[in-house]
Amino acid sequence: MLSTLGVLAYLLTNSLLVLTAQEGTQAPFHAINNDHRRLKPILDEEFEAWINEKGFKWGMKGVAIAVTRRTKDDNGEWDGWETELKGYGVADRWGNTVDEDTLFGIGSNSKLFAALGIGLLVEDEKYPINWDTKIKDILPKGEWKLQDSAMEEQANLIDILSHRTGLPRHDVSYSRTDTLRTLVSKLRYLRPSAEFRKIWQYNNQMYSTAAYIIELLTNKTLPEFITEKIIKPVGMNSSTYLFDEAIKLNILADGFIGTETGNPKGEGK
């Protein structure tokens, strides 16, 4: 098994700690073959001792880690990848252990997949967009309406993915019942707090806009596109983009909160 907006229940092993140890040219997506491992393992007993000493000391209940590295042949040429996957600690209130298949909700790390999805469309000549394409030229007429006229006219794909539109978080402006389309439609009611392209301000709705663009251009739902173009090609066989599916798999980690003593306790799924 290989490792690297809705709710993304995704294998933490493949998301938080995918480390590329050597520089090199970009390789196409493909599953990693570990049949002939050549690199010295990183997730060894010494590392496990470090996790036990440092991580669990501060209340961490469980974690899954992946390390992905490029490999070279005898001539010093890049020839493949090797990956290590390992879980530590417990995954839930019942004490089930974390392993390489345990699913963790990764929250805003899912933005990686929206940005990567846009990048795949930019690189695909079938889609008439590039990084400088303006959002108003992608979305249907009348859907991209903003209070800042400069932002509305000039914002491009780089702007919405770089948190530089001038819009702050406005987190109470949307709910779980919103679709990507309704999230975008609500942007016209949100007041900017900075000039366009002047400062960095974290904004979730711009990544929802990116996800909406993916759905419009591909005629697929975002989970369908991400699964087809990213999850399956790289062999992330234990991963899913759907929360309901993660529940059914019965390998989803619980969330934990700290008690007054500093010891975390599970609060259920």
In summary, what is this structure?
Residues 1-20 form the signal peptide. Residues 57-241 form the Beta-lactamase-related domain. The protein is built from eight helices and six strands; from the N terminus they run E-H-E-E-E-H-H-H-H-H-H-H-E-E.
Topology at a glance:
Layout: E1 9-10, H1 45-55, E2 62-72, E3 78-89, E4 104-105, H2 111-123, H3 149-154, H4 157-161, H5 180-185, H6 204-218, H7 222-231, H8 243-249, E5 256-258, E6 264-266
Antiparallel strand pairs: 1-4, 2-3, 5-6
Helix pairs in contact: 2-6, 2-7
Your description of this structure?
This protein has 269 residues and is of the alpha+beta class. It folds into 2 domains: 9-103 and 238-266, no CATH class; 110-225, 3-Layer(aba) Sandwich (Beta-lactamase), CATH 3.40.710. Helices cover 27% and strands 12% of the residues. It is built from 8 helices and 6 strands. Strands 1-4 form a two-stranded antiparallel sheet. The longest helix has 15 residues, at 204-218. It is globular and about 60 Å long. Mean pLDDT is 84; it is low at 1-30.
